[in-house]
Each structure stands twice: as structure tokens, then as C-alpha cells.
Amino acid sequence: MSKEAVYVGSIDQGTTSTRFIIYDRDSRTVGSHQVEFNQIYPEAGWVEHDPMEILESVRVCMAKALDKATADGHNIDSGLKAIGLTNQRETTLIWSKSTGSPLYNAIVWMDARTSGVCRKLEKELSGGRTHFSEVCGLPISTYFSAVKLLWLIENVDAVKEAIKSEDALFGTIDTWLIWNLTGGLNGGVHVTDVSNASRTMLMNLKTLEWDQPTLETLGICPKILPKIVSNSEVIGDIATGWPITGIPISGCLGDQHAAMLGQACRKGEAKSTYGTGAFILLNTGEEITMSKHGLLSTVAFKLGPEAPTNYSLEGSIAIAGAAVQWLRDGLGIIKSASEIETLASEVESTGGIYFVPAFNGLFAPWWRDDARGVCIGMTRFTNKAHIARAVLESMCFQVKDVLDSMHKDAGEQGEVKNEKGEFLLRVDGGATVNNLLMQIQADVMGSPVVRPADTETTALGAAYAAGLAVGVWTEEEIFASEEKTKTATTFRPKIGEELRKKKLESWCKAVSRTFDLADLSL
After folding, report:
1. Which pLDDT belongs to residue 1?
2. CA–CA separation, 395 vs 438, rounded Å?
3. How far is it, in rounded angstroms, from Cα 227 to Cα 298?
4. Whole-angstrom Cα distance, residue 91 to residue 219?
5. What is the DSSP string of 329-357?
6. For position 483, what pLDDT does the model report?
7. How far is it, in rounded angstroms, from Cα 309 to Cα 302?
8. How far is CA 471 from CA 28, 261, 414, in A?
């Protein structure tokens, strides 16, 4: 495509906010807007979103970003070639195909109400917690869409009736948005992509299709499921009634997979995204690597219907940035998330405090839904700065636990190292602007952390997938990572091996204290 003004838009629908970013041909942001939306907590451990509010947030972000880019002299109307979409994964909803209305709020990925469903399945199925792992790469966990869908079928009459009358459509957030963006009741396209489908527990990792035996075992009707497509292909045009119309949606990836693409992670390279949770993915190439150390096997990306599939190992951490929000909103220790760096920098160490944010249990590599948060090691010497620093350290220790499991699963051959023999962790997401957090991460790992100039790689990855499908970029341009590292910031470890080892031992002791606490009396 020639050098005239060319733009690609990206919808980034996250757990706490939605944004729309418009990129030019050189991957520079020319307009963006972000909107937070409500988190609904009906009961302890339950988290929901209003699907209609999410739709409205997308509409507002599109309109405002378009206005900003146009005001700065960019002719988006004539230059916009494609829209990419990336989203919070696993969050599950069912809606009526005849009315277009949701039949219940979206059940969010971190919601833990399905622990009873999980225990029941583990007892009934011969393979226990890992019964479906060989097929889908995932253990039975409250985290994944299938068990949320089972809960909806069992507990919501409207869902039960809609499935019976063939009026129900199931989807993760990508499916809900695409259906509405492409017309909804008037011909909306009911699809999901391979990366989002790989997080439902229902897709066969090898065939990239819904797994019939799994559906039969769980009693899920295949008619409610969307069609699975690749991450980079024209899905459908945006319908009238939206701020942008007639433009193809041609890229769709779950948020962590989009970040991998935005970071240009080739085989053997890993990235960690710090958002509400933290998510570490290692590209394992075209081979599926089954984890023996508590990680998930999942799709990385498939850049076209005929393109090869890249797989990955993933470690998912439920609470990362959410712990900072808790300090702000729950305890009032800080007034804004950005204040934590200053507060935590007031002390040289945590003073022996270890904080484990197992608010709704622990994900990888522990997989303990009976865990609850603990803060240990407190004395009269402890102050709010120590607690703030312990919260930052908790994110980094959790990432280190996942990376240790990754190193064991992938082995020396599965990881790419630089000329100094160092394994580099690429980082992105909102929390990475915190320099202290990044330095602690390098210290805890004992190896370098690389932060790109543009830390919003999730939206960029979705834009890349969309642009690739319509010829804005080539795969070679997307993966030209040498250019990206020129403007990156590298954090190197500053503490010695002996101190690192002691701190990690103390962290493991703290984690062990979180187990079997889910039934503490109110």
C-alpha cells in the first residue's frame, strides 16, 4: 500500500475500561479515547459487567477518538482502512438473537461463583481437574468460559428457555461486540477468533474447532456457539448507526495474544502484560507444549485463514494492578494509582512484609481457588509505605513464579537469549510506567526487563492483525523487532543472588499461608 495517509483503528475492550486508538502507517497514535465502566459485585467473589454499558463505551470511544484525530488535521474518513478488536478474555455472556438483549450480565473472567461447578466436574469426570487438558490445554477452573456458561444454564431461567427455543447466542466479549458492530439483529456476524475460543475450554487446540466430545460431556448445545475464525481476516463491515461505518473489522485477538503480536514475540520470546491481572506468554512456535508445571497451553496467534498457528505457554495471575486499585479504593492508602511509586520509594525494603493478593484464589502456577489474600510479617515498625512496596513486590514475585514454571516446561531450547546469554522479558500494560515496579521485577528475576516506548501494545497488536489482512502492513514489518528495541528502556537486576534467594523463599512461605482460607467465618 502506498504512502498516502493510511489509518487503522483498534478497539481495546479491557476489564475496567474501553479505549479506541487510531494508528497511522508508522504505528503512531493519531487519536485515542478511553472510558472506564462499572464493575458490578453482587456477592463476595462475584464480578459482572453490563454488556450494554460496554457497547456504549465502545461507541463513545470511537466518536471521541475520531474527533480528536480529525481536529489534529488527520483525514480519517478517507484514510481509515480497517478496524482491529482486542478484548478481555473468558468473560461470558448469552443474549437473545431475536431481541439482541443480554439475558444476564456478563460474568467476568475473575469471577469465582463457579467453584461449585468445578468441584462437581472434578469429582464426576475420570480425569479430575485435568480431564480436558489434553484437548483444550486448560484445567477445570472458575477462570474459563465453559463453567461460566454452565452456571448460566443452571441458574438463569431466561438462558435455559432461550437455549430450548433456539433463541440463545453465546459469546465472549469479542463475539458480542462484533455481532453488534456488524448489524446485530440486522445480519450481525456471530464469530469468535482462535485465541478467544482457546480460552473457553471448548476448543480443540489441534483442530481449532469446537470439540464435540467436550460439548457432549458438558451438555452444551453447539448451535449457540459462534464460528471460529483466524486472528487476521475480513470478518464483516461496521454497520450504520456507529460513529464509523462501512469499514471492515479484519483483526480480532484476545488481549494477551494481541500484546504478543504488538511486542512482535517470535518463537522462544516472552512478554508480560501488567493490567488488572498479569499475563505472561511464551511463544512456543507451531508445536503445542503441554505444561507439567501449572501453566496453560493456548493459541498465541494465527495470522490468516491459511497461516500457520503459533502456540504459547501462558501463566495467568488474577490480581496485579487490581491490588493497587484496592489500596486506592478499598483502603484509601493512596488517592490515585500513580501515587504508589512515590509512596513505595519512601522505604528501601518492605521491612519483612509479604503480601499475597489471593483475593479470589490463586491462578498459575498454584491453581488454588481455596486461597485468600494474606499480609504477613507486620510489626509496629510497619507503615503504609512498606505495604505499598509489598504490593508492588507481590506482582513481581507472581510473575517470577510463572517464569520459573515456563523455564521448566520449555527448557533451554525453547527460549531465545541475547548475545550475553540473557533471557529478556518484554513488558507492557498500564502498570509498566512505574519504574520502581520494573526495577523490582528485574531484581526478583535476576534478568533484564525490556519496556517498549509505547506500552499499549495490546491495542497495537489488534491494529497489526487488522492492517495485515487488508495490506497496510506485511508480516516482515510487524516482526521487525530490531526497530522497536532501539527506543525501549531496559531494567537490569541490581541485587545479589543471595538476597534474591532469601526473598523468594520468604515469598513461597507467604503463598503457603494463603491456602485453605476460603471458608473463614464472616
Report:
1. 43
2. 10
3. 18
4. 20
5. IIS-S-SSTTHHHHHHTTSSS-TT-EEE-
6. 58
7. 5
8. 17, 17, 32
Q: Where are the beta strands (DSSP E) in 173-258?
A: 191-193, 203-204, 209-210, 227-229, 232-237, 248-254
How would you class 166 by CB atoms within 10 Å of its CB: exposed for 0-12, middle for 13-18, buried for 19 or more? exposed
Q: Give the pairing type, strands 354-356 and 309-317.
A: unpaired
Distance (Å, rounded) from C-alpha 226 to C-alpha 190? 5
Cell of 407: 523455564
C-alpha 305/C-alpha 364 separation (Å) is: 31
Residue 441 CB neighbour total at 10 angstroms: 30
376 contacts 353 by C-beta, under 8 angstroms: yes
**Could you tell me how far CA 40 lies from the centroid of its own chain?**
19
* 195 three-class SS: helix
Residue 310, classed as helix, strand or coil, is: strand
AA letter at 85 = L
CA distance 147 to 131: 14
Query: CA 489, CA 50: separation in Å to the nearest integer?
Result: 38
Cβ atoms of residues 172 and 196 within 8 Å: yes
- pLDDT at residue 358, rounded to an integer: 93
| pTM exceeding 0.85 | yes
Which three cell numbers, joined as nine digits, stand for 282?
Answer: 511464551
**Rounded Cα gap, residues 411 and 210, in angstroms:** 31
Q: Say if residues 13 and 172 touch (Cβ distance below 8 Å).
A: no
Segments in 131-172 forming alpha helices (H): 133-136, 145-155, 157-164
CA-atom Rg of the chain in angstroms: 22
Which helix H or strand E contains 328, and what residues bound it? none
Q: How confident is the model at residue 521 (pLDDT cuts 50, 70, 90)?
A: confident
Q: Which alpha helices (H) appear in 188-227, and where do they start and end?
A: 194-197, 212-218
β-sheet bridge partners, residue 252: 85
